Amino acid sequence: MQYKEIRVGEKVKRAINAGRQVFSVNWIKRVESNVGDLAMLKYGDSFLAWATLNPLDPYHYVRLLSTDEKYEPLEDLKDKIRRAKDYRSKIGYKNHYRLVYSESDFLSGLIIDKYNDIYVIQNANPFFDKNIEILRDALIELEGKNISIIEKSVGKSRETSRLEPRERILYGELYETTIKECNKKFVVNVLLGQKTGWFLDQRENRKIISKIRSEKAIDVFCYTGSFGICSNSDQIFFVEKNKYAVNILKKNISINRINNYKIFNDNAFKILKMLANRKEKFDLVILDPPDLLSEKNGLKNIILINSMAIDLIDEGFLATFSCSQDLKEERFLSILRTIIRRKRKKFSIIGKFQQAFDHKVIHPHRELNYLKGFLLEIHN
Ligand SMILES: C[S@@+](CC[C@H](N)C(=O)[O-])C[C@H]1O[C@@H](n2cnc3c(N)ncnc32)[C@H](O)[C@@H]1O
Asked: I need a labelling partner for 99 at 20 to 30 A (CA). Which of 136, 148, 246, 276 fits?
């Protein structure tokens, strides 16, 4: 394969040795190149690493591929996926999990989620974008021929990397399957679903919610109902605006034989206001919004929706989450504290939520840590 040679300074060498895998144009000066070109980084005459270039993305201009001089893309990928799988198996994750989490598995910009025999790729690495067949072949060689491989390279990371959105079946025919969590069954439809089909990052948090005994719970921004269905509640209200998610939610309610429920296929802000006007109260409120901070009026809406959620509780639990990378845990807690104090209510912090263990965060790539949340007990 053809490649460019790029000489880097002491600072980049030290950063690579410390584990950094992504470099902006502030670290490494642009050379003439195309998206997905291969480059050999050198310090003086010594080899440092193989990398790929994206001249259209100043933040992720250089992504490391391997620090092994004898880089062979297919073998390297297979080795890293094998190791990634081994780690998930050691922490007890079977059948469905995030198999590859970007830099944490030494595959910068690449995510692979596994749902039984379905493998979903979400990629922002320009080298794999150009050579997608390597990814497909690696998965088939490792996992066998009876699998399905679907690419869902869409969304924010694709936009920042200036790569065209891609959604296609790369191999096989299967795109819907059933997974099990908290002794409940859930339909995952990779093509109709959001992200790669299921919010794997909430796995451990669902287990925590399943331990809480409640008489009347509400799962706000419920997607396909994972929290509500996992909860140990006599009656559950579900709120979700996306109609495709609600169709799958209905299937999930049916296969888990849930009888006492209500579904609101509408805007959460509107529904919570309506429920407050009706003076409806819940002893468990789950609030798992999308990345509100990146939307218009982000902070205002985070405050508003949490405030509305707290109004629905006299005595009970609030499980509130934020997947906004720029909202740090301390700031989130301070917002909650202010809202609750202003309402002259009392609260205890029972616990903190974090992303599941397959979403591990490698040093120094702290940006891989995005999910945070609190389990609060609210009382008058
Ligand atoms: C982070 S996901 C929730 C994931 C879910 N808790 C789970 O574990 O499967 C956020 C969900 O909120 C929905 N959503 C976004 N804005 C909404 C709004 N204004 N009202 C209702 N639902 C909304 C999205 O369609 C998405 O399904």
From this structure: 246
